Amino acid sequence: MLVEKVDQMMEWSSRRSVIRMNGDKFRRFVKAPPRNYSVIVMFTALQPQRQCSVCRQANEEYQVLANSWRYSSAFSNKLFFTVVDYDEGADVFQQLNMNSAPTFMHFPAKGKPKRADTFDLQRIGFASEQLAKWIADRTDVQIRVFRPPNYSGTIALALLVSLVGGLLYLRRNNLEFIYNKTGWAMAALCVVFAMTSGQMWNHIRGPPYAHKNPQNGQVLYRPNG
Questions:
Q1: Each residue of 31-50: pLDDT tens digit?
Q2: Cα–Cα dist 74/97, whole Å
Q3: pTM, full prediction
Q4: Is the bond leading into 34 cis (omega within 30 degrees of zero)?
Q5: Which residues are listed as membrane-spanning (predicted)?
Q6: What is the widest separation between alpha-carbon atoms in the chain?
Q7: Residue/partner pairs of 131-140 with CB below 8 Å, 24 or more apart
Q8: Among 12, 58, 157, 179, which one has the highest count of C-beta atoms within 10 angstroms of its own C-beta?
Q9: CA torsion sign, 40 to 61 to 208 to 129?
């Protein structure tokens, strides 16, 4: 039975880095013995009607991490990444007394999950690198995160340079606007507003993505700007 479970998990993992599970699959392949592999489970709510933007952002980071593991030379049948969506496994949420999403849990190969097997998303956030570090602490499996290249910044910079260059070329016979004090004042204000924005504060201070209100227990998420 163990061999069949491992073979099935490997087959699913070969098709998709993150294995989707409903209640029956979760109980059979994650909870029920025998099992000689660790499982990382993301409990989430990705359906549009749930309006969970944090779930979508966490899912993107989770996919990056799972792909990094799936296509690494160290990939083995000792660790699998899975996801349980509330609309596909509400019974699992009830079984675990779970009332918030997203939540990341590690189910070890032996024994029951401990407190440290639940990822502290409220304090650390859900960046792929932080998840990889937590997994290394819990499983001794080292995952090097590989992010797909993002050329949006390079493209935006190229467009800006082209725009400025084109403007200077068209006005090459009359460059008096360069000495316009009002224009430079507006540009300076834009820089000041950008540097004092909430997004810049988040980038410099790196506050936790979410925290719990000690008075009412409500989870509050960090604004993006």
A1: 998 899 999 999 999 999 98
A2: 34
A3: 0.72
A4: yes
A5: 151-170, 182-201
A6: 81
A7: 131/61, 131/62, 131/65, 131/104, 132/65, 132/68, 134/104, 134/106, 135/40, 135/79, 135/106, 138/38, 138/106, 138/108, 139/38, 139/78, 139/79, 139/106, 139/108
A8: 58
A9: positive
Residue 87 identity:
D
Residue with tokens 């997004």: 199
Position of tokens 């969506």? 85
- Provide Rg for the chain, Cα atoms: 24
220 membership: H or E segment, kind and range:
strand 219-221
The DSSP secondary-structure symbol of 96 reads T
The token duo for 163 is 């725009």
pLDDT digits (tens, 9 = 90+) for 151-179: 888 898 899 889 888 887 777 777 776 77
Strands of 75-184, DSSP E = 79-85, 103-107
Burial class (CB in 10 A: 0-12, 13-18, 19+), 108: middle
Spell out a b/e string for 148-158, using b for 16 or more CB atoms within 10 Å of the CB, else e: eeeeeeeeeee
Q: Please, are residues 85 and 23 in contact by the beta-carbon 8 Å criterion?
A: no
Backbone angles phi, psi at 160, to 5 degrees: -65, -45
DSSP state, residue 27: I
